[in-house]
Write a structure and sequence with these properties.
Blueprint: H1 2-5, H2 8-15, H3 21-53, H4 67-85, H5 96-106, H6 113-128, H7 136-153, H8 158-177, H9 180-192, H10 197-218, H11 237-262, H12 269-284, H13 295-302, H14 308-327, H15 335-356, H16 364-380, H17 383-394, H18 400-417, H19 423-430, H20 439-445, E1 457-460, E2 463-465, H21 466-470, E3 479-483, E4 487-490, H22 492-501, E5 507-509, E6 518-519, E7 522-524, H23 529-539, E8 543-547, E9 553-558, H24 559-571
Parallel strand pairs: 1-3, 7-8
Antiparallel strand pairs: 2-5, 3-4, 4-6, 8-9
Helix pairs in contact: 3-6, 3-7, 3-8, 3-10, 4-6, 4-12, 5-7, 5-19, 6-7, 7-8, 8-9, 8-10, 9-10, 9-17, 11-14, 11-15, 11-16, 11-18, 11-19, 12-14, 13-15, 14-15, 15-16, 16-17, 16-18, 17-18
Length: 572
């Protein structure tokens, strides 16, 4: 008996329930460790390749390239990307957080292995060759995808796959930035769209596990050198609101450029990748800082080391080149570029504000930090995650109040002045998709069908003799499952009534007795209540039979069971 409690089958059965917190903590830990290892491998692949290829031997030091090399690096990257992608179907090329949201919303969090491999090798190629993209978007896909694959390999219920994707997302951000709390909030705010104890706890475990893995192997030093700064006077608050408004306008422009570029996705892949290489290669002749992620340039902006003209030039080119590059199909991320555009814009506005007044104002790096958080919050529609990320990156509680003002202002600007959702949702809508959950969908997607099934039934053949029917103890069971040419349910009382009315009939065809016959379809034990309800609505049936891996019937699920479960959730 005790041995059964530690079996994989029992583990799966417990995960079907909404209160399976110990089991969810286990899968959160596995997700965090697996994601941490994968992100470490991804980062080492990129960093070691850049150290080998760049003249200075330093990763991200694209400034050390000669003029011709600045042009040839992206071109070579586009050629390699074409060789990687040209034989794949369009849906196999989809990568990044938008792909994760698509699979969450339309495929029960089943992320394919093929897209994950494209993201790993395509994202690494893009970053190594200097395309103007980030590494955090690929990290999110890798963490969410590999965690989903773990659940699929172990054949876990679909409700737990959603949790695993959230765990992988949080773990990836924690591993990329050493910001575990921001990873947790981002996963809950953007991917899972819920804050519950059951969902929150395994996500926290995953983020902490991944963060520890990265700190243990790569060290705890983060990529950004952030000074400790604070606002000089409350008189700066109106200007901080103005900065938030300007950043919101830039986020809306980034969103629109990327979605508009995606509309050219039907053009040949070779043409799109060639244009991307031509753009970054040409601009890099003047601004080599745009190549790659650009954390060295971002750190310089945060420390106030860049002149106003360079800040504006880099901001304008990054704002245009990055969304076009991503829209053309180069596999890469948005979070890093959003940080850089926001920091450059915030730094420029900080310098302009300093020149416009004789009063003491905060250091230009402080405005760069505010711009960085405001851009991330507005572009990704993740204001709380952006605030927490700023707090974790800076370790400076003095930034909370001004950051809240800037982030809220930028979010209001994007959502209500321009009417735009996050850039991920905009990308999905450009493909004719969307990502949102109604309350009933949210509740029903968190519970697997096997948690509500009834086993109070007898399985009998379609034709049965009278003596066998009398020996079934019909009064003690709620259902008769007729397993013949067709599967359907009968109320045992209907068979008892028929036996009383036809005392002389030796053989009974249960498909033809006067009774309410409930037609049935099969559904896997891995399905959620939402999937079962959709199946019932599509087929206009009121019940399904739930089967295990070997197609054995585990139990019966009716529409009444689902509706009762939803009513119970509303009362809690």
């Amino acid at each position: 008996m005790i041995k059964d409690w530690f079996s994989l089958e029992h583990f799966r059965h417990r995960l079907a329930h909404v209160d399976a917190l110990p089991q969810l903590v286990v899968i959160g830990l596995l997700s965090g460790i697996a994601t941490g290892l994968l992100i470490i491998l991804f980062r080492l692949t990129v960093d070691l390749s850049q150290q080998f290829l760049l003249p200075s031997g330093l990763s991200e030091d694209f400034e050390s390239l000669s003029y011709i090399q600045r042009f040839l690096f992206p071109a070579a990257g586009s050629v390699l990307l074409f060789l990687l992608l040209f034989r794949l179907r369009p849906e196999q090329r989809r990568v990044g957080p938008a792909h994760v949201l698509e699979r969450m919303g339309y495929h029960q969090a089943h992320l394919p292995l093929s897209n994950l491999l494209v993201q790993f090798f395509g994202g690494a190629t893009s970053l190594i060759s200097g395309h103007s993209v980030g590494r955090e978007g690929p990290a999110i896909h890798l963490g969410a995808g590999f965690s989903s694959l773990l659940g699929q390999w172990f054949k876990l219920p679909n409700n737990s796959l959603r949790i695993l994707v959230g765990c992988g997302t949080a773990a990836a951000i924690a591993a990329a930035f050493n910001t575990p709390l921001a990873g947790v909030v981002f996963a809950m705010e953007v991917v899972m769209l819920e804050y519950t104890v059951v969902g929150f706890t395994p996500v926290v475990v995953a983020a902490v596990a991944a963060d520890i893995m990265v700190r243990f192997t790569l060290g705890s030093e983060i990529d950004l050198a952030v000074p400790i700064l604070e606002v000089e006077t409350l008189n700066e608050i109106p200007y901080i609101m103005f900065v938030g408004f300007c950043i919101g306008c830039l986020a809306a422009l980034f969103n629109r450029i990327m979605v508009k570029t995606q509309s050219y996705g039907k053009h040949p892949l070779s043409l799109r990748l060639g244009i991307a290489a031509l753009l970054i290669g040409s601009v890099a002749l003047v601004y080599p800082q745009l190549m790659g992620v650009g954390y060295d340039t971002l750190s310089a902006a945060l420390n106030g080391e860049l002149a106003l003209g360079l800040l504006i030039g880099l901001m304008v080119t990054k704002l245009i080149i990055t969304p076009i590059t991503l829209g053309l199909g180069v596999p890469g991320g948005i979070i890093g570029p959003s940080f850089m555009v926001g920091a450059l814009a915030g730094g420029a506005l900080g310098l302009i504000g300093d020149h416009m007044t004789n009063q003491p104002v905060a250091h230009v790096g402080f405005y760069a930090m505010l711009g960085m958080g405001a851009m991330m919050g507005a572009l990704l529609n993740a204001p709380l995650a952006a605030l927490i990320a700023l707090l974790e990156l800076t370790g400076n509680p003095n930034i909370i109040l001004p950051a809240m003002i800037a982030i809220v202002t930028s979010n209001l600007t994007v959502r209500y002045l321009f009417g735009l959702p996050s850039v991920f949702v905009s990308s999905l809508r450009a493909l004719g998709l969307d990502y949102h959950y109604e309350p009933i969908t949210q509740a029903m997607s968190g519970i697997a069908v096997s948690s509500l099934i009834t086993r109070d039934f007898i399985s009998v053949p379609q034709e049965i003799d009278r003596d066998t029917a009398k020996s079934l103890n019909l009064e003690a069971h709620h259902w008769l499952l007729i397993d013949g040419k067709e599967r359907f349910l009968l109320d045992p009382s209907d068979l008892l009534t028929y036996l009383a009315r036809k005392p002389d009939q030796a053989t009974i065809d249960l498909a033809h007795i006067p009774a309410l016959h409930r037609d049935l379809l099969e559904i896997s034990y891995r399905a959620t209540l939402h999937e079962a309800l959709d199946l019932m609505n599509e087929t206009e049936l009121d019940a399904v039979i739930v089967t295990d891996l070997n197609q054995r019937v585990l139990g019966i699920l009716t529409r009444d069971h689902i509706e009762q479960s939803y009513r119970n959730n509303l009362r809690q």
